[in-house]
């Protein structure tokens, strides 16, 4: 894959790129370890300027009729779809994900969410409720925007997550200051320019670049009303704590260690397909991955045999080749972390290595220095192993066996995390009963990973707060105002003359 060097990425506010006064860092192509672009970091004064730009824009944007906001954002959807492949190629170079994925999932699903919320608001999604208390008294409610909101993105689905946050934020009448991950920042200025081209007024969507210190300053900023964060649990707790100190609204989409339960009657072939999608899609760098695969003891042999056959269908290679379906890990730091877990699984946990491992995979021409790792499967795992308990965020599957379904459910729930869970079975009645007992906010039956715009998603326990997408996703970006109107002509009072 040819390596490109992109123009510098700047901060963006008042509807145009601005020169930042912070330091400059380089974004790296994970497939080659070569530099991609210089990225200019926002200083505190830059962040203040972006927040003030969003504050100035808020009144006019929130006063714009919802149908008018919808038309503008639907224009942005059109531009996103027209530029799908161009944006997807940038995402591939920035994240290391194959073009077969970024061109069919990342930009597409982000645009889907923007289109969904624009249409929802145009169709009355921001309407309140009216209740007649008595003949001459009414209560009505209004859904009002919050103000300036902060979106902090994750590195694994950059433009998708940026759209998942900005879409409901903007359609509801809020303004946003968005900070992309410093690991994959190239999409942010592209999206800001698309919004501007579509007619989004200056200051409504703004971008600041930088690492955790930039996010921390944004989160605690007195001019901010809400923080929406996607990332790991430990960082999310810090962000939520900082936001809570300022009584800010929060949405937290955090990590998981999700269970995939294969029931005794499941089709082995389909179960293996589901387990592979739940572990190796996007090189395993998906927060909802079903990395704890529970299978009945009697199915262990057939399942592992079929799995080993299908591991050959994982195809690393030239990331722009549509037949490639597996890329490198996103960064050198993350590469070291995932390798550390694989080595721990072998040397300390003493799990059985079914395939893969820490050895460097066969070099791919032109990408010998990239952060490539072998898709790895451990079997004979136990619940107490570190690789079973902690989120690895890489292409590492753990196989655990169980004796009966009740035991599997109990063990599946024995984690402080509760992001996702899934079941494979031919018995749909049983599937619903099992799903009802699994402690997770996102669940699937006989599939894994699909998250359409219409589906509200969010974690339980330490995996997050609130939901994104679906009708409920809009509620996270508005506040309620209730008004009681008395038309009787008499003011009720206890202070009357006896």
Automatic annotation (TrEMBL):
Record InterPro entries: Ald_DH/histidinol_DH, Ald_DH_C, Ald_DH_CS_CYS, Ald_DH_CS_GLU, Ald_DH_N, Aldehyde_DH_dom
Gene3D superfamilies: Aldehyde Dehydrogenase, Chain A, domain 1, Aldehyde Dehydrogenase, Chain A, domain 2
Any single Pfam family the record assigns to this protein: Aldedh
Protein's UniProt keywords contain Flavoprotein: no
Record: active site: 253
Residues covered by the Aldehyde dehydrogenase domain: 23-482
Top-level EC class: oxidoreductase
Reaction(s) this enzyme catalyzes, per UniProt: an aldehyde + NAD(+) + H2O = a carboxylate + NADH + 2 H(+)
EC number annotated for this UniProt entry: 1.2.1.3
Name of this chain's protein: aldehyde dehydrogenase (NAD(+))
